[in-house]
Amino acid sequence: MFQDISALIADNPPGWYSGVTVTDVDGDGRLEFVVGGFAGPNRVLKWTGNCLRDVAPPQLADAEQQAMGLVAGDVDGDGREELYLANADPNFDRLFKAQLDGTWANLFARPRSVAVTGQHAARGAAVIDRRGVGRYGFFVASHPNPLQLFELSPDGTIADLAPALGLARRGQIGGVLPVPLFAEQPDIVCVNGVGPNFLFRNRGDGTFCETAEDHGLADPDECGLAVVAVDTHADGALALCWGNREGPHRLMVPQENGIWKDRATASLAFPSAVRTLVAADFDNDGHDELFFHNRGEANRLFRGSPVMTMLDAGEAVDPEGCATGAAVGDIDGDGVLELLIARGEGERQPLGLFKCRFATANNWLRVRPLTRFGAPARGAVVRAEVAGRILVKVICGGSGALCQMEPLAHFGLGPGGVAQRVQVCWPDGAGVVLLNPRPNRTVTVPYPRG
Fold it and tell me: Could you write out the three-class secondary structure of 116-163?
């Protein structure tokens, strides 16, 4: 399926790269790939018309640190996303905010905030609007620390609210996924490298209770590394897929009784050295694919329609790749997703950029919900009715492991396809319905007022 277009990265030296996120770094309304540098500077890759160029300002490059992963979200409600960089022990994490002069300031450097910052190697990170107010917290998993949730306090400092909210569990978390599984408010799925997974169910007031075993999601005997939500049946519901090290991968589908069942096919379940999972419609045919980014062995690609079937990943097989992270976004604006993969666990390798060879034959629709402050509404749910099927996407707050996808819902519509109805639902329950949106365009949906 994939064609290697890595030559479009203008400067692509071998490096020890790590997590990847997609956000609008410079505030011009266009998205960039942001790549963590574990040994060397972080990179901000911007499409300049014919290639991706590194435009990282010095503060974000942060060349002396060891970035493990990074996620973006609007923590202060100013309409622009901040950037959380999770650094390896013994380096403090960073929470960067854009300044009016184009520089970036570390909010953790404020008085009293430094006492709560992470100082251990992060294993998972995501952003969550737990109350549906348009302001995000940064949820961070680092061992042996308990889980942390950093939010902006009324006095302007950063506080860890995890203990007060029922989140301060300990575990060797491998992946974090904020996703609304039971209501509009986001829940948090954590796959655990040692011991049972966590499912923090949102009580509806922004506090949480842990219920993984109650729903059949604990998987206590396996070593979870990465987790993603995926639309497998086009019925408006999401499945959960996670990768286990040296054990069977899972594809968990909800049942009417509230218990989730593993529906992984033998080829999907077969163990691999997975580092990141990506769920997206790469070929715009109306069915999501699942990309398993593996370390030191061939990457794998599956399509759910509705049974997960293994596909030929083409030039993205990358059997010698030292996988660390991956993310998707339509960086060049042509309606076809680009897949950026980071490598560098164990040896220096360049970044990889891939794209589907034949997606341009199909229609597409991109939906960009905004918060009440005008920032990307990460955690909002978008459903599209297409030819009797209901496709569903969650605007990504964090996915795979230490990665984050673009803050849009990207729907492939197939040849000549159109969406009859699109519904956007924000974490507070507010909703908007769009009828018969034209295909092959991006629709921006402001938060409803009044």
Answer: HCCCCCEEEEEEECCCCCCCCEEEEEECCCECEEEEECCCCCEEECHH
| 77 backbone φψ class: left, alpha, beta (φ>0; ψ -120 to 50) | left
Residue 213 DSSP class: G
pLDDT digits (tens, 9 = 90+) for 183-202: 999 999 999 999 999 999 99
Alpha-carbon span 229 to 206, nearest angstrom: 21
58 sits in which H/E element: helix 58-61
10 Å CB burial of residue 262 (0-12, 13-18, 19+) is middle
Evaluate if pTM is beyond 0.90: yes
Running DSSP on this structure, what letter comes out for residue 109?
G
Asked if residue 17 lies in contact with residue 36, where contact means CB atoms within 8 angstroms, the answer is yes
DSSP string, 298-315: --EEEEESSSEEEE--BT
pLDDT digits (tens, 9 = 90+) for 71-97: 999 999 999 999 999 988 666 889 999
**Number of other CB atoms surrounding residue 63 within 10 Å:** 11
